[in-house]
Design a protein that fits this description.
- The strands form two sheets. An eight-stranded mixed beta sheet has the order 2-7-6-5-8-9-11-10, sandwiched between helices. Strands 1-3-4 form a three-stranded antiparallel beta sheet, covered by helices on one side.
- Helix 1 packs parallel to helix 2.
- By secondary structure, it is α+β, with helices and mostly antiparallel strands.
- The chain contains four helices and eleven strands.
- The two termini are 24 Å apart.
- It has one domain: archaeoglobus fulgidus dsm 4304 superfamily (archaeoglobus fulgidus dsm 4304 fold).
Length: 223
């Protein structure tokens, strides 16, 4: 049976005032035959400076899920205006190809929904679309959950199957591309924004920062 768990705030380093209280139910699946007790989540925060772009990432440990969020006002920023992370002590939902949203959508929506200033754009690690025919990926489900009003850009580090539909972005001297898909914004435009992000390596600075933030949160919850 699902047990309501607290998403513990593990770190925040605001340049503006921030207070966050998070409650999130477990993401582990109920035992076979057991009823789900999933409840609505809540996350509240107060910050003095809104930021239009939210970079989010989710990481996993054997018995914890970590989430990181960076807020910034420009794609070319080297540092975030505000950042926070949280961890959920539970067993992650089993990964199933093509159903990544079942693992992360709930966590992303909790973080986004708690911001006092709704972001004008959301950036995630992963795909928005899983095929030329418009098969939805994590980003497409997130875009729909945000009432198709907030553009979502997906930046994947690994190619999904025989992907021919994403925009490839080569950065620095790397011969390995980032795979960009988007909803609510033209994919070519989104790819141009990713290409101009700060950092001389394949992975932009902010993406590396939010990845480490989420991983640290997951590791903290596992200890």
């Amino acid at each position: 049976m699902h047990k309501n768990e607290a998403l513990e705030l593990t770190s925040f380093y605001p340049r503006s005032a921030l207070a966050i209280a998070i409650a999130l139910d477990t993401l582990s699946e109920p035992a076979k035959g057991a009823a789900s007790t999933r409840r609505p989540c809540r996350l509240s925060c107060e910050m003095t400076c809104p930021a239009p772009i939210a970079f989010l990432d989710v990481a996993y440990a054997p018995s914890a899920v970590g989430v990181g969020c960076l807020l910034t006002d420009t794609w070319t920023a080297a540092t975030a205006m505000l950042e926070f992370s949280g961890c959920l002590r539970c067993s992650p939902v089993e990964y199933r190809p093509g159903q990544f949203y079942k693992r992360e959508l709930h966590v992303l929506l909790t973080a986004i929904g708690g911001l006092c200033h709704h972001p004008q754009m959301v950036v995630i690690d992963g795909y928005v679309w899983l095929g030329q025919d418009g098969a939805p990926g994590l980003g497409a489900y997130l875009f729909a959950a945000l009432h198709s009003q907030t553009p979502v850009v997906g930046i994947a580090k690994r190619r999904y199957r025989q992907d021919t539909w994403s925009e490839r972005v080569y950065r620095g001297t790397s011969h390995r591309p980032l795979y960009v898909t988007a909803a609510g914004i033209e994919t070519t435009k989104a790819a141009g924004l990713v290409a101009r992000m700060h950092g001389k390596y394949r992975l932009p600075t902010l993406l590396g920062q939010v990845d480490r933030l989420a991983r640290a949160a997951a590791a903290h919850g596992w200890r």
